[in-house]
Amino acid sequence: MQVLVSVSSVAEAQMVLSAGVRLIDLKETAYGALAALDIPLSAAMVAAVDSYRQQHPQAGIIVSATIGDDCSSAEALSELIQSRLDIGVDVIKLPQTIWANAAYTAVIKAFLAQRVKLIAVLSADHLSGTAAVSTMLQDLASARYWGVMIDTIQKSQAVTALISLDLLGFFVQSAKAHGLYVGLAGGLQLAQVDSLADLSPDYLGFRSGLCLNQRREQPLIKEKLHLVTAKVSAFC
Length: 236
Ligand SMILES: O=C[C@H](O)COP(=O)(O)O
What we know:
Elements: E1 2-7, H1 10-18, E2 23-26, H2 39-55, E3 62-66, H3 74-86, E4 91-94, H4 96-99, H5 105-113, E5 117-123, H6 130-142, E6 147-151, H7 159-162, H8 165-177, E7 181-185, H9 193-197, E8 203-206, H10 222-233
């Protein structure tokens, strides 16, 4: 199991790399849930990751990026994705407002046909029972998404307050059965690592739980970061 950390600056990217994080998620954390960083800043962060990769070629680092909580048109979506691929982002995370919207299906299908790695983010705020989860995962796997994850949109509650451990476990196991790379996130704290690790996701995603006052727009706290990477590495 890996740790994914959402970062919004070059300094944060370097900090999480030094702490042993291998899934670096470029995200604007000052507002929204899956807001996008601009391209110049994203490119500087990718360059910082590339510099680390040169010194640690075996590290297996993956850079993901969000493209926004919504977008204005299919053309805009195409540009949001392509511009991030062009600067070396490995994986693009799409919010449910986009991947579940038929207006964007053709654009997404075209990227998937080129084997671009896309993660469909399922909103914890709207997830219901196992039948709905099964149908969604079947559809996403058939469309050849690379991965899926659950995350919260409203950041006032943790994912575990919104979805039972049974349903989260069902989600993880079903995603794996479809060959999807699977993650869980949403207001996670260190204290939740044990129970979620038991579900065996490929990764747990963090931001607010590692920040000052547990506010995701605040800076990451190095000590919390090290505690969580140490804790998760015990499950690898
Ligand atoms: O992808 C992971 C998310 O950025 C986690 O953010 P959060 O811990 O603030 O919900």
